[in-house]
Structure prediction request, 732 residues.
Amino acid sequence: MNILVPTLILGVIGAGVGTLLSLAHKVFYVETSELQKRIREALPGTNCGACGYPGCDGLAEAIYRGDAPVNSCPVGGESTAREIASILGLEAPSLQETKLVLFCSGTRDKAIRKFDYMGIEDCNIRSILWGGDISCPYGCLGGGTCVKSCPFSALSMGEDGLPKIDYLKCKTCGICVQVCPRHLFALVPKNTKVIVACNARELSGRDTRKVCSAGCIKCGMCARVCPVGAIKMENNWPVIDQEKCIACGACVEKCPVHVMHLVV
Amino acid sequence: MSELLSEFQYNTLLDYKRKKCIILEDLLQEVNKDMVFRFLGGLRIEEHKELTESQPILDFPIPKRVVIPLKQHTGAVLEPLVKKGDMVKIGDKIGDSKAFVSSPVHASISGKVTSIETHPIPTGEVVPSIIIESTEEDPIEEIVTENRRWEELKREEIISIVRESGIVGLGGAAFPTSVKLSPPEGTSIDTVILNGAECEPFLTCDHRLMLESPDEVIIGLQIIMKVVGAKQGIIGIEDNKKDAIEVLTNRAKNYRDIKVVSLPTRYPQGSEKHLIKSLLNREVPSGKLPLNVGVVVNNVQTAYSITNAVCKGVPLISRVITVSGDGIEKPSNLRVRIGTQFKDILEYVGLKKETKKVISGGPMTGFSQWTLEVPVIKGTSGIIALTKIEEEIYPCLRCAKCVDACPMGLLPLELGNLAEQKRFDDAQRLYALDCIECGSCAYICPSRRPLVHLIRFAKAEINKKRRR
Prediction:
């Protein structure tokens, strides 16, 4: 019998609060237009924040109001942009498809380390101690800040100390591009075939050898071996014309420090 | 009352009471004169000073090669005044700047400038440095050029001598002393404090200096008092240095305006703000300087070099450092030339093979080094070699031991977590910029969290944002 009293009390409280809630839903109801709802449905719904708005709801509202262009979502890409454009009756803009690449080849065995770092695993925190534990002032610190920041779990820390990109999961949102303190990630056009996976533009070849055995030594071998003349040395740095490149792999093979990477 | 006591008895009692009151007041005054106040937080830490406490200061042999960085102080980077291939004499000025907050550097040996290149320094920066190779051995005594009486010099003359001699705070922060000695218009300084607390473990260089050259220290204090126009001078010494207190008290007896105060041994007693709180019960407000409460604080070694510069004309080209730790064969106190490389000093005292970590400065606030090529700079107070290093870092337990230990009354656990989450605005709201980086929180943390490292990171980011 005793059990009945608390059950009754809780039941009454539950019913009361439930009524209040349903009342509040009616009284404080926020009108959203049908268009905004449809825009929201067209967006990926990952709430990654890559667009700069607070989640997909925020972006849907901004697009509806006209504050943001229809191709603001880097994750959804061209198809999403086209869908939103058709909802709003606008012309679909062309959106260049991109892909993510890492401009460093300094694996743990190649980049020379000044000391063993012990402390919090974070690139920003790492770099305040003597500018980071690796000798190269441009290379990957290996703290995994990008891995932690990726909303799609597309990055993972490889055994060799460099982050690995899972192209099946990467949605090119560009958050890692923003968080990397050394700016080693970049979103490049989809047709990119070969990259120079090194960021040490400012260092001379001799200085590069001192800090990393995988850094570009500016020898110009890639430019000489390219059968179609797609690579030119500009300011002592190989610049690749991706339109001309046929992805034959000649430069990748001949590069003495193996810094040319095929990214097809 | 009168019913119970006769008139006579009552008067006697009153007299007795008055007398007692007077006696009490006298007693209180007697106590008050040397009353030491307590700051919040702080720690008692293992001192390890016995390793070098009784070692007299030895002159380190003149090194073959010195590296003189052009930025050893807080402030602007200097311009070199010499070129590659120039011959320099000991005591020559080789770098200077027009900036107000800067301090020139001098050649600490005679020889040839072999190059001017960037070189790492113990504070973690890489700065342009002048490298001199020795050609002849010059003892410091040779450059004693002047025999001035400081009493006859004017205030401005003394400040310009201090500036030209390149004197900076030798406690560790290396703030140019000439700037400290010229307070802005409108601030009145009533007290000069000499910091002889030396609260860092292992370090004994200031202790030995006070024992071996007490007269220079006291003259230095008098010079500073004259320049800033202070009425009293206090030398604060932690009570684990009884012999130094005794020696200095004996010397100070001759001067009415100078006193020596024994302070309780409690880390960080030697911090500027805590020393002021302990000695004068004044608190330096957040974001303000000791100047704002009418106090100038200088290290005893700074006072010693001021005396040398003003009375003898010797610029700051050498300093006393302590080389200690369980990784050192012969722990000692050495007088070394500025610019002597760590490897030379460690070779001289013997570095054990099992050494894991070499720290410049004290173990609480110092910087661990990755190369022994770094030179001794003006702010280097010691070299500590340790054979054990911290183990793994665990997550914060929120035990709040760091809150009890923090002498500034901050919340290190919150600051550390906020720094890790990159919430710098919140960290600033919790007064991250007031952190004095004393290391008490990291010392006490049972999870071995590198709290100072994290707070330093937060401070750097906040300052970056401010400058923008």
In short: Chain B is about 30% helix and 20% strand.
